[in-house]
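FORM 7B: Structural annotation worksheet

SECTION A. Query
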Amino acid sequence: MSALACTNKTLLLERYLSYTLNSTLIRKQDATSVITYVASNRVGQNLAWDFVREQWEYMFTQYGVGSFNFASLISGVTQRFSTPAELEQLERFVDEHKTAGFGTATLAVEQALEKTKANINWLQENKQQILDWFNSQAKHTQ
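SECTION B. Predicted structure
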């Protein structure tokens, strides 16, 4: 399942994500893994996040709390968030779904917000220093 998420072809990744909504193609207990595998792919990160946002109500009502790990889904899809735009999307997502709640993913949602803010702050504090270091290393290799 992990290997199938390694492609750089967005059409294949989108199709793979859509399969998670059909338990005859991907078992419910494997759907979280598939979505987070796609999210760990640089090309698939935004696709997986968009998919979760678009399908959240369906997954939340159809999959319920049984075999579907919502906490793992949220933490896996938001793991690399590090921009103000991603934070804004996450906050909007939380706001849109706060009435229904997040069930077992409530803590994961709070942690995703905190981690995204921490990532943004870390980048602001360290980005220039890291860029300077990379530039100095590039000069040494030329």
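SECTION C. Observations
Helices lie at 10-19, 28-40, 45-63, 70-78, 84-97, 106-141. The mean pLDDT is 92.

SECTION D. Sign-off
Analyst initials: ____
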